[in-house]
Amino acid sequence: GSVEKATFSWSAPSNIALVKYWGKKETGDQIPANPSISFTLSNCKTITSLNVSAKQNPSDDFSFDLLFEGKPKEDFKPKIQKFLERIEGYCPYLKSYHLEIDTQNTFPHSSGIASSASGMAALAVNIMSLEKMLKPEISKDYFNQKASFLARLGSGSACRSVHGKVVIWGKHQDTTESSDLFGVEFSEVHENFKNYQDTILLVDKGEKQVSSTVGHNLMHNHPYASQRFDQAQYNLTAIKQILSQGDLERFVELVESEALTLHAMMMTSMPYFILMKPNTLEIINKIWRFRNETQVPVCFTLDAGANVHVLYPESVKEKVLQFIQNELVVYCQNGQYICDQIGNGSQLI
Ligand code: PMV
Protein backbone atom coordinates (compact mmCIF):
# COMPACT_ATOMS: atom_id res chain seq x y z
CA GLY A 1 0.00 0.00 0.00
CA SER A 2 0.99 3.65 -0.11
CA VAL A 3 0.21 6.39 2.34
CA GLU A 4 0.36 10.12 1.66
CA LYS A 5 -0.29 11.42 5.13
CA ALA A 6 -1.11 9.84 8.46
CA THR A 7 -0.94 10.52 12.18
CA PHE A 8 -0.49 7.93 14.91
CA SER A 9 -0.40 8.31 18.64
CA TRP A 10 0.87 5.90 21.29
CA SER A 11 1.84 5.85 24.92
CA ALA A 12 4.64 3.64 26.20
CA PRO A 13 5.53 3.16 29.86
CA SER A 14 8.81 3.12 31.70
CA ASN A 15 9.95 -0.16 33.27
CA ILE A 16 11.92 -1.14 36.35
CA ALA A 17 14.36 -4.05 36.14
CA LEU A 18 14.39 -6.73 38.83
CA VAL A 19 17.37 -8.60 37.35
CA LYS A 20 19.48 -5.87 35.80
CA TYR A 21 20.84 -5.43 32.29
CA TRP A 22 24.34 -4.04 32.72
CA GLY A 23 26.87 -4.74 29.99
CA LYS A 24 26.45 -5.54 26.32
CA LYS A 25 28.24 -7.65 23.75
CA GLU A 26 30.75 -5.85 21.56
CA THR A 27 28.69 -6.46 18.42
CA GLY A 28 27.44 -2.86 18.20
CA ASP A 29 23.76 -3.79 17.95
CA GLN A 30 22.59 -3.73 21.54
CA ILE A 31 22.92 -7.40 22.39
CA PRO A 32 22.88 -7.75 26.19
CA ALA A 33 25.66 -9.60 27.99
CA ASN A 34 23.06 -11.12 30.31
CA PRO A 35 19.30 -11.59 30.41
CA SER A 36 17.14 -9.20 32.43
CA ILE A 37 13.56 -9.03 33.66
CA SER A 38 11.40 -6.05 34.55
CA PHE A 39 8.03 -4.86 35.75
CA THR A 40 6.33 -2.69 33.15
CA LEU A 41 5.07 0.47 34.87
CA SER A 42 1.78 2.25 34.40
CA ASN A 43 1.84 5.96 35.25
CA CYS A 44 5.37 6.90 34.19
CA LYS A 45 5.09 7.01 30.44
CA THR A 46 5.89 8.83 27.24
CA ILE A 47 3.11 9.90 24.89
CA THR A 48 4.26 10.32 21.31
CA SER A 49 2.45 11.25 18.12
CA LEU A 50 3.98 10.61 14.75
CA ASN A 51 2.84 12.62 11.79
CA VAL A 52 4.06 11.30 8.44
CA SER A 53 3.77 12.95 5.05
CA ALA A 54 5.16 11.55 1.80
CA LYS A 55 8.17 13.55 0.62
CA GLN A 56 7.74 15.51 -2.57
CA ASN A 57 11.42 15.16 -3.38
CA PRO A 58 12.64 11.81 -2.07
CA SER A 59 16.17 12.20 -0.74
CA ASP A 60 18.80 10.01 0.84
CA ASP A 61 18.53 11.78 4.17
CA PHE A 62 16.06 11.33 6.96
CA SER A 63 13.79 14.27 7.32
CA PHE A 64 12.20 14.86 10.70
CA ASP A 65 11.13 17.49 13.20
CA LEU A 66 11.03 16.91 16.89
CA LEU A 67 8.70 18.56 19.35
CA PHE A 68 9.10 17.99 23.09
CA GLU A 69 6.14 19.18 25.14
CA GLY A 70 5.00 21.13 22.10
CA LYS A 71 8.26 22.97 21.49
CA PRO A 72 11.08 22.22 19.03
CA LYS A 73 13.85 20.37 20.84
CA GLU A 74 17.15 20.50 18.98
CA ASP A 75 19.28 18.71 21.58
CA PHE A 76 17.22 15.47 21.31
CA LYS A 77 17.65 15.34 17.55
CA PRO A 78 21.06 13.60 17.33
CA LYS A 79 19.74 10.69 19.40
CA ILE A 80 16.73 10.30 17.10
CA GLN A 81 18.92 10.66 14.00
CA LYS A 82 21.17 7.86 15.30
CA PHE A 83 18.15 5.70 16.08
CA LEU A 84 16.71 6.18 12.57
CA GLU A 85 20.07 5.26 11.04
CA ARG A 86 20.22 2.12 13.14
CA ILE A 87 16.77 0.91 12.12
CA GLU A 88 16.98 2.05 8.49
CA GLY A 89 17.71 -1.44 7.12
CA TYR A 90 14.63 -2.82 8.88
CA CYS A 91 12.34 0.08 7.94
CA PRO A 92 13.41 1.16 4.45
CA TYR A 93 10.15 3.08 3.99
CA LEU A 94 11.16 5.74 6.53
CA LYS A 95 13.16 7.82 4.07
CA SER A 96 10.11 8.28 1.84
CA TYR A 97 8.46 10.39 4.53
CA HIS A 98 8.90 13.56 6.44
CA LEU A 99 8.36 12.66 10.11
CA GLU A 100 7.00 14.97 12.74
CA ILE A 101 7.57 13.50 16.17
CA ASP A 102 5.65 15.13 18.98
CA THR A 103 6.51 13.74 22.40
CA GLN A 104 5.89 14.36 26.08
CA ASN A 105 6.37 12.51 29.37
CA THR A 106 3.91 12.17 32.22
CA PHE A 107 6.77 12.48 34.71
CA PRO A 108 8.92 15.57 35.15
CA HIS A 109 11.85 15.83 32.76
CA SER A 110 15.19 15.56 34.59
CA SER A 111 13.47 13.90 37.53
CA GLY A 112 16.22 11.34 37.29
CA ILE A 113 13.69 8.90 35.87
CA ALA A 114 15.15 7.72 32.60
CA SER A 115 12.83 8.52 29.72
CA SER A 116 14.88 6.61 27.17
CA ALA A 117 13.00 3.33 27.68
CA SER A 118 9.51 4.82 27.40
CA GLY A 119 10.58 7.32 24.74
CA MET A 120 12.21 4.82 22.41
CA ALA A 121 9.39 2.31 22.87
CA ALA A 122 6.77 4.97 22.06
CA LEU A 123 8.61 5.94 18.88
CA ALA A 124 9.07 2.31 17.85
CA VAL A 125 5.36 1.43 18.13
CA ASN A 126 4.46 4.54 16.13
CA ILE A 127 6.86 3.49 13.37
CA MET A 128 5.23 0.06 13.39
CA SER A 129 1.85 1.74 12.93
CA LEU A 130 3.21 3.26 9.73
CA GLU A 131 4.52 -0.15 8.66
CA LYS A 132 1.14 -1.70 9.40
CA MET A 133 -0.54 0.89 7.22
CA LEU A 134 1.85 0.04 4.38
CA LYS A 135 1.54 -3.72 4.97
CA PRO A 136 -1.91 -4.36 6.47
CA GLU A 137 -1.28 -8.12 6.49
CA ILE A 138 1.25 -8.07 9.35
CA SER A 139 0.02 -9.84 12.48
CA LYS A 140 -0.31 -8.40 15.96
CA ASP A 141 2.49 -10.65 17.18
CA TYR A 142 4.80 -9.52 14.40
CA PHE A 143 3.88 -5.91 15.14
CA ASN A 144 4.76 -6.22 18.82
CA GLN A 145 7.88 -8.27 18.33
CA LYS A 146 9.29 -5.93 15.72
CA ALA A 147 8.32 -2.88 17.81
CA SER A 148 10.33 -4.33 20.69
CA PHE A 149 13.19 -5.18 18.32
CA LEU A 150 13.30 -1.58 17.02
CA ALA A 151 12.99 -0.12 20.52
CA ARG A 152 16.02 -2.20 21.58
CA LEU A 153 18.09 -0.50 18.91
CA GLY A 154 17.14 2.87 20.43
CA SER A 155 17.87 1.94 24.03
CA GLY A 156 18.33 -1.64 25.23
CA SER A 157 15.88 -1.58 28.12
CA ALA A 158 13.24 0.06 25.87
CA CYS A 159 12.50 -3.33 24.35
CA ARG A 160 10.96 -4.29 27.72
CA SER A 161 8.42 -1.39 27.49
CA VAL A 162 6.31 -2.65 24.58
CA HIS A 163 4.66 -5.51 26.45
CA GLY A 164 2.92 -5.36 29.80
CA LYS A 165 3.35 -6.76 33.29
CA VAL A 166 6.58 -8.75 33.47
CA VAL A 167 9.02 -8.85 30.55
CA ILE A 168 12.20 -10.83 29.94
CA TRP A 169 14.88 -9.71 27.51
CA GLY A 170 17.99 -11.70 26.67
CA LYS A 171 18.87 -15.30 26.05
CA HIS A 172 18.47 -17.35 29.16
CA GLN A 173 20.39 -20.58 29.59
CA ASP A 174 17.30 -22.44 30.88
CA THR A 175 14.98 -21.88 27.95
CA THR A 176 14.63 -21.07 24.27
CA GLU A 177 11.68 -18.80 24.95
CA SER A 178 13.57 -15.56 25.45
CA SER A 179 15.64 -13.66 22.92
CA ASP A 180 18.52 -11.19 22.78
CA LEU A 181 16.66 -9.34 20.05
CA PHE A 182 13.37 -8.37 21.73
CA GLY A 183 11.43 -8.61 24.99
CA VAL A 184 8.88 -11.34 25.71
CA GLU A 185 6.18 -11.27 28.33
CA PHE A 186 6.56 -13.70 31.22
CA SER A 187 3.05 -14.82 31.97
CA GLU A 188 3.30 -17.31 34.83
CA VAL A 189 2.96 -14.69 37.53
CA HIS A 190 1.34 -15.48 40.88
CA GLU A 191 -1.51 -13.36 42.20
CA ASN A 192 0.73 -11.97 44.95
CA PHE A 193 2.37 -9.85 42.27
CA LYS A 194 -0.86 -8.58 40.76
CA ASN A 195 -0.86 -4.75 40.74
CA TYR A 196 2.53 -4.77 42.48
CA GLN A 197 3.37 -1.25 43.60
CA ASP A 198 6.42 0.86 42.77
CA THR A 199 6.75 4.14 44.62
CA ILE A 200 9.66 6.08 43.17
CA LEU A 201 11.45 8.31 45.66
CA LEU A 202 13.17 11.19 43.89
CA VAL A 203 16.36 11.56 45.90
CA ASP A 204 18.43 13.37 43.32
CA LYS A 205 17.03 14.91 40.20
CA GLY A 206 20.40 16.05 38.87
CA GLU A 207 21.74 15.14 35.47
CA LYS A 208 22.95 11.56 35.24
CA GLN A 209 26.59 11.20 36.31
CA VAL A 210 27.11 8.23 34.03
CA SER A 211 25.22 7.70 30.78
CA SER A 212 24.08 4.13 30.35
CA THR A 213 26.24 3.83 27.21
CA VAL A 214 29.33 4.63 29.27
CA GLY A 215 28.01 2.39 32.04
CA HIS A 216 27.55 -0.68 29.87
CA ASN A 217 31.04 -0.19 28.45
CA LEU A 218 32.49 -0.28 31.95
CA MET A 219 31.67 -4.00 31.95
CA HIS A 220 34.27 -4.63 29.24
CA ASN A 221 37.44 -5.72 31.02
CA HIS A 222 35.63 -5.46 34.34
CA PRO A 223 37.30 -7.80 36.86
CA TYR A 224 33.98 -9.33 37.94
CA ALA A 225 32.16 -9.29 34.59
CA SER A 226 31.96 -13.01 33.91
CA GLN A 227 30.85 -13.83 37.48
CA ARG A 228 28.21 -11.11 37.22
CA PHE A 229 26.86 -12.42 33.92
CA ASP A 230 26.68 -15.96 35.37
CA GLN A 231 24.90 -14.63 38.44
CA ALA A 232 22.28 -12.88 36.30
CA GLN A 233 21.56 -16.18 34.50
CA TYR A 234 21.19 -17.89 37.86
CA ASN A 235 19.05 -15.07 39.30
CA LEU A 236 16.74 -15.16 36.31
CA THR A 237 16.09 -18.85 36.89
CA ALA A 238 15.37 -18.07 40.52
CA ILE A 239 13.10 -15.10 39.95
CA LYS A 240 10.95 -16.93 37.42
CA GLN A 241 10.28 -19.50 40.11
CA ILE A 242 9.72 -16.80 42.74
CA LEU A 243 7.24 -14.94 40.52
CA SER A 244 5.29 -18.03 39.62
CA GLN A 245 5.17 -19.32 43.20
CA GLY A 246 4.37 -15.94 44.75
CA ASP A 247 7.34 -16.17 47.14
CA LEU A 248 7.53 -12.63 48.53
CA GLU A 249 10.35 -13.38 50.96
CA ARG A 250 12.72 -14.62 48.29
CA PHE A 251 11.58 -11.82 45.97
CA VAL A 252 12.74 -9.19 48.47
CA GLU A 253 16.12 -10.87 48.87
CA LEU A 254 16.83 -11.36 45.19
CA VAL A 255 15.67 -7.91 44.08
CA GLU A 256 17.69 -6.02 46.69
CA SER A 257 20.76 -8.10 45.95
CA GLU A 258 20.44 -7.29 42.23
CA ALA A 259 20.18 -3.56 42.95
CA LEU A 260 23.25 -3.57 45.17
CA THR A 261 25.17 -5.70 42.68
CA LEU A 262 24.46 -3.20 39.91
CA HIS A 263 25.95 -0.47 42.08
CA ALA A 264 28.82 -2.72 43.15
CA MET A 265 29.70 -3.16 39.47
CA MET A 266 29.91 0.62 39.10
CA MET A 267 31.99 0.99 42.23
CA THR A 268 34.47 -1.65 41.07
CA SER A 269 34.88 -0.56 37.45
CA MET A 270 37.65 1.64 36.08
CA PRO A 271 36.83 4.49 36.19
CA TYR A 272 34.64 3.93 39.26
CA PHE A 273 31.45 5.70 40.31
CA ILE A 274 29.28 6.02 43.39
CA LEU A 275 25.79 6.83 42.17
CA MET A 276 24.04 6.51 45.52
CA LYS A 277 23.65 9.63 47.66
CA PRO A 278 23.63 9.74 51.47
CA ASN A 279 19.83 9.90 51.33
CA THR A 280 19.73 6.75 49.21
CA LEU A 281 21.43 4.91 52.08
CA GLU A 282 19.21 6.54 54.70
CA ILE A 283 16.17 5.26 52.80
CA ILE A 284 17.59 1.74 52.42
CA ASN A 285 18.29 1.53 56.15
CA LYS A 286 14.80 2.78 57.01
CA ILE A 287 13.23 0.20 54.71
CA TRP A 288 15.26 -2.55 56.36
CA ARG A 289 14.25 -1.43 59.83
CA PHE A 290 10.58 -1.13 58.87
CA ARG A 291 10.62 -4.57 57.31
CA ASN A 292 12.26 -6.12 60.37
CA GLU A 293 9.79 -4.52 62.72
CA THR A 294 6.59 -5.12 60.74
CA GLN A 295 7.33 -8.18 58.55
CA VAL A 296 5.75 -6.22 55.67
CA PRO A 297 7.40 -7.53 52.47
CA VAL A 298 8.58 -4.19 51.12
CA CYS A 299 11.91 -3.85 49.35
CA PHE A 300 13.92 -1.41 47.26
CA THR A 301 15.55 -1.45 43.90
CA LEU A 302 17.76 1.09 42.15
CA ASP A 303 18.59 1.97 38.60
CA ALA A 304 21.81 3.69 37.57
CA GLY A 305 21.23 6.65 39.87
CA ALA A 306 20.34 7.78 43.38
CA ASN A 307 16.56 7.43 43.25
CA VAL A 308 14.94 4.55 45.11
CA HIS A 309 12.11 2.39 43.80
CA VAL A 310 10.08 1.00 46.69
CA LEU A 311 8.36 -2.25 45.67
CA TYR A 312 5.50 -3.89 47.60
CA PRO A 313 2.26 -5.85 47.17
CA GLU A 314 -1.01 -3.99 46.69
CA SER A 315 -2.35 -5.60 49.87
CA VAL A 316 0.02 -3.54 52.07
CA LYS A 317 -0.30 -0.32 50.10
CA GLU A 318 -1.85 1.76 52.85
CA LYS A 319 0.70 0.72 55.47
CA VAL A 320 3.66 1.31 53.19
CA LEU A 321 2.44 4.68 51.91
CA GLN A 322 2.01 5.81 55.49
CA PHE A 323 5.56 4.67 56.27
CA ILE A 324 6.86 6.47 53.17
CA GLN A 325 5.09 9.68 54.13
CA ASN A 326 6.16 9.52 57.76
CA GLU A 327 9.74 8.39 57.34
CA LEU A 328 11.05 8.53 53.79
CA VAL A 329 9.70 11.68 52.18
CA VAL A 330 12.16 13.80 54.19
CA TYR A 331 14.98 12.24 52.14
CA CYS A 332 13.39 13.15 48.79
CA GLN A 333 14.36 16.27 46.88
CA ASN A 334 11.55 18.77 47.50
CA GLY A 335 9.64 15.90 49.11
CA GLN A 336 8.87 14.46 45.69
CA TYR A 337 7.86 10.90 44.93
CA ILE A 338 5.78 9.16 42.26
CA CYS A 339 3.27 6.37 42.89
CA ASP A 340 3.25 3.77 40.19
CA GLN A 341 2.43 0.09 39.72
CA ILE A 342 2.65 -2.74 37.23
CA GLY A 343 0.95 -1.81 33.96
CA ASN A 344 -0.01 -3.00 30.54
CA GLY A 345 2.64 -1.86 28.08
CA SER A 346 2.29 0.33 25.01
CA GLN A 347 -1.19 1.57 24.14
CA LEU A 348 -2.61 3.07 20.99
CA ILE A 349 -4.32 6.36 21.73
O1 PMV B 1 18.61 0.71 28.35
P1 PMV B 1 19.80 1.36 28.93
O2 PMV B 1 20.99 1.26 27.99
O3 PMV B 1 19.53 2.77 29.35
O4 PMV B 1 20.25 0.54 30.23
C1 PMV B 1 19.46 0.40 31.38
C2 PMV B 1 20.27 -0.11 32.52
C3 PMV B 1 19.57 -0.23 33.87
O5 PMV B 1 18.45 0.61 33.95
C4 PMV B 1 20.55 0.19 34.95
C5 PMV B 1 19.16 -1.69 34.16
C6 PMV B 1 17.98 -2.21 33.39
O6 PMV B 1 17.97 -3.43 33.14
O7 PMV B 1 17.05 -1.45 33.08
UniProtKB/TrEMBL annotation:
EC number(s) per entry: 4.1.1.33
Positions of the Mvd1 C-terminal domain: 200-329
GO molecular function: ATP binding; diphosphomevalonate decarboxylase activity
Pfam families named in the record: MDD_C, MVD-like_N
Domain of life according to the entry: Bacteria
Keywords associated with the record: ATP-binding, Lipid biosynthesis, Lipid metabolism, Lyase, Nucleotide-binding
Listed GO biological process terms: isopentenyl diphosphate biosynthetic process, mevalonate pathway
Keyword NAD: no
Domain Diphosphomevalonate decarboxylase-like N-terminal: 12-178
Cellular component GO terms held in the UniProt record: cytosol
Record family assignment: Belongs to the diphosphomevalonate decarboxylase family.
Name of the protein in question: diphosphomevalonate decarboxylase
Native organism: Flavobacterium sediminis
